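Dear H.,

Thanks for agreeing to be a second pair of eyes. The structure we're designing against is below in token form, covering all 136 positions.
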């Protein structure tokens, strides 16, 4: 996984952004779970099945869908709304889980894209791809 912490801006709140496959179960430590199986599935596209959301071809396929961009916009907005409330309730961490069928394509792409958007966040965070190495 990748950890993003800017020591100058590090707060006492840490966010884990996790990709997973629903066919392997929802991560038990999730605080927020999002289902992105509504997006077109690269698994069924020739040449993309054996790649992952870490590959540019899969990323391009997933992000070419307007709904992917809209989903990220809305999720980013929701997190900026919710995190201060979690902090005010005394929480110091949040696990945001994004799932697709197998946890290799759509969820991985969206976790990576959300992390890219959060690089300048005031919160520390890490990305983790729980099921990316699992067999079909």
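And this is the sequence the design step returned. I haven't edited it by hand at all.
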């Amino acid at each position: 996984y990748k950890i993003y912490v800017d020591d100058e801006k590090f707060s006492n709140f840490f966010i884990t952004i996790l990709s997973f496959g629903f066919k392997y179960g929802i991560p038990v430590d999730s605080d927020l779970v999002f289902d992105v199986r509504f997006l077109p599935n690269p698994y069924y596209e020739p040449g993309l099945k054996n790649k992952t959301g870490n590959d540019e071809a899969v990323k391009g396929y997933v992000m070419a869908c307007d709904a992917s961009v809209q989903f990220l916009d809305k999720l980013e907005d929701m997190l900026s709304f919710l995190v201060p409330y979690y902090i005010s309730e005394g929480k110091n961490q949040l696990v945001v889980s994004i799932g697709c069928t197998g946890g290799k394509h759509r969820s991985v792409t969206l976790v990576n894209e959300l992390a890219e958007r959060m690089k300048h966040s005031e919160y520390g965070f890490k990305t983790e791809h729980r099921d990316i190495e699992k067999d079909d």
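Two observations from my side: Residues 2-16+28-129 form one domain. The first strand starts at residue 2 and ends at 4.

Warmly,
E.
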